[in-house]
Amino acid sequence: MEVNEKVKIVITVASLVAATVLLVAEYRRRRHGRKQTSSPSSCYLHSETKPQFGFKRVLADNSYSGFKHMKKLDDVFSSSIEKPNNSHPYETEIAVLLENPRLDEVEFLRGECSLEMSGSYVWVETEYELKKLAETLAKEKVFGVDTEQHSLRSFLGFTALVQISTEEEDFLVDTIALHDAMSILRPVFSNPDICKVFHGADNDVLWLQRDFHIYVVNMFDTAKACEVLSKPQRSLAYLLETVCGVATNKLLQREDWRQRPLSEEMVQYARTDAHYLLYIADRLTAELTQRGTDFPGNAAASSLIYRHLNSHGDNSSISLDAKELVRELCAWRDLMARIHDESTRYVLSDQAIIALACKNPTTAEEVHHSIAQADLATESSPSLSLSNQSPSDVICSHLNDIYQMTRDNKLPKLDALLPLVLEKCLGTDGTCPVSVFNYSLLINFKTKIGVHSAPKQNGHRKNLKQFTRKSSRDLFVKKFSCKAPVYHNCRIYANDGRLLCYCDRKKLEWYMNRGLAKLVEEEPPAIMLLFEPKGRPEDEGNDFYIQTKKNICVGCGEGNHYLRYRIIPSCYRVHFPEHLKSHRSHDIVLLCVDCHEVAHAAAERYKKQVASEFGIPLFVRRVVDSKEAASSVECDESRGDVKDVGVSPLHLRTAAMALLRHGNRMPSSRREELLQTVKMYYGGRDISEEDLERALLIGLSPHERRKLERKKGVPLKYSAEVAHMNKQENSSNEHGEEAPGDSEKYMNEESSIVADDSGGDGNTSHQQNSKLSLLGHGPHGKQVVEYLLREHGEDGVRDFCQRWRQVFVDTVHPRHLPGGWNVSHSGRRDFGEFSVYNPSKRHSA
């Protein structure tokens, strides 16, 4: 018996081996035969016909050229600016809809809707049927759309089917048979009065444009609505199941949609994707309307409540009051995260919010314990993974706030609660520091929560305005005030022991390191020069430079913060002769923020007065045509008012950028206003797109132009040309191009030590040259100084400086000016033999 079984096993194994050998041999024979019958010059496409080969015209081929948008016949820009090449043909219509959405005007369903899908549908495969469909859709106010694409046997892929559903009928459009006639549907898809409903329209819109030049104008995307409502899922299958109670097999999406006829399952799937879109859009719109004011954190709260109820069902312990607490906690968490620049998950986890809402703790300790336990129960808690601390530092600092929210059922509504929280944190006596991250909350928060939600009380409004202004001031002080004392009051003595000037430590170290001086006192440090300086304090007839200076505002005496302020604006000073400006600190003083603001405003007003007096406009104006230039000058002189002539570089660039980006869709009045701004720079003539491109670069420094080029990723057109033009218009003096370094700068003091102290601006020409274009007054300042030197010589410049000092004194009424400061200060200095500013030395260099 055992022998027979062994024989059977051997026979079975032998049979399997024989069958395997036969199969391998047959496979090799067929493969060899196939190779023999293949011709090196033949291609499988000769014997295989693809559906897309029947298309007479394709809008996107397999070449390396980019896609070209359709050109509308009436797409002519009314002004002198043309639209960019290959721009979206319906950009204007879409922009109008974005500015004025019509969602409240759309009725996705006209009455009661049955969720049952009938057995009938319309198959559209002829041009006549397509025209009838277009006529039907033109009468509708809304219809649903979906598409199916085939991409496996096509390099770019192509649209194989379009599903369209109205409230009464479902249409399946055979886009393979009608590929060359699909433009018939273009008018209804681009009609802004008809809303098209898609789900996840990104690819659908792309395919319709690429394959048929069909552009969608006025669209409602149910996937985007899910994002706004913070739905736990965004897929259409999720919406079909949760909203409509319909299950669908998404695996059918991978079927070969080229095949004809479609299987019954594929038809059912295609109809389902479009048939329920109108009902889903109607439900989602109702949810969006019910949300009301979009409070901070509201989306997170809705999602959190939904996920909790979905996971617990009828066993959920969250009540109606608890849901309201969830919304309050989410709003509070969002605001605190913004104030402290933390993530919302770090501030308070979702699990902790649900725990607080369900347990309703009665003490601050219970609040702390509930949050800690909720975070410990979740391994992915940010409080544990990032800092090993739960609750977070934010919670620990504001634990009482959460306790009050959980304990008091009579808290004010969110529209009143959140401004109170903001004021408590960042108000006049706020508990949290103001920073660059949270300052804008003070200004923009009431806009975020809605106009009707702003505080109603006049007193509260006044307080809000006051602490907003104070916070703005505090932030400005923190960002721009001097971070260290300006005046060190170190002393420099001549080799005969006479005091020459006060300076900072850096200058003393420079002399000591080069063996040009010796230390004579330790604290405060003082040095004695080992050479004879060129100038002495008595040479200038005043003792300003041999007086100690206090690090306080010269106006009011504020000592906690201060900024440097140039009494004579840099746009003039930078063009002064070197011996009237180099290393002169007399006209650079310290001012607090408040005094600085007053002085700056007065200086800007006086600039306009100077512009009017000298007939030199503040801003540059480029005139290409010389005849036009002559006529414009005559017009300016006849008006006798030149202070408003020209345009600042910043305003010019802003206007040019707006026109290039949005000119074709902005209101005509606004477009004309910006055009006039640019035309003012070009002397009033009509402008082209090339002029706008050039205007983008006007006034930019080389560094700023390079930065803009890196941002765009390509070299900017006209960059070299505009750089040369900026150089001519700003008329930067040669000293700005060859600024001395620190060693050369201090060598200047070897010959004329009296000329400087720690408050001086040193190489003013070099520092200010790059800023002239931003100030916009550089050419004006140069022309004023040239006029003064030409008509009155250096005395004219000195008188001009005295006028500015008098403006400063009359405006600020300074009570803490250093001793020796005088309105009639001459400002002149002589240069020694080794000074880099010595004319003979500069000439040889």
Automatic annotation (TrEMBL):
Q: Name one GO molecular function term.
A: nucleic acid binding
The chain positions of domain HRDC read: 319-409
**InterPro entries hit by this protein:** 3'-5'_exonuclease_dom, HRDC-like_sf, HRDC_dom, HRDC_dom_sf, RNaseH-like_sf, RNaseH_sf, Rrp6-like, Rrp6p-like_exo
According to its UniProt record, what is one Pfam family this protein matches?
HRDC
| Protein keywords | Membrane, Transmembrane, Transmembrane helix
What spans are recorded as compositionally biased (Polar residues)? 763-772
> Which processes are annotated in GO (biological process)?
exonucleolytic trimming to generate mature 3'-end of 5.8S rRNA from tricistronic rRNA transcript (SSU-rRNA, 5.8S rRNA, LSU-rRNA)
Q: Where is this region: Disordered?
A: 724-777
Q: What is this protein called?
A: HRDC domain-containing protein
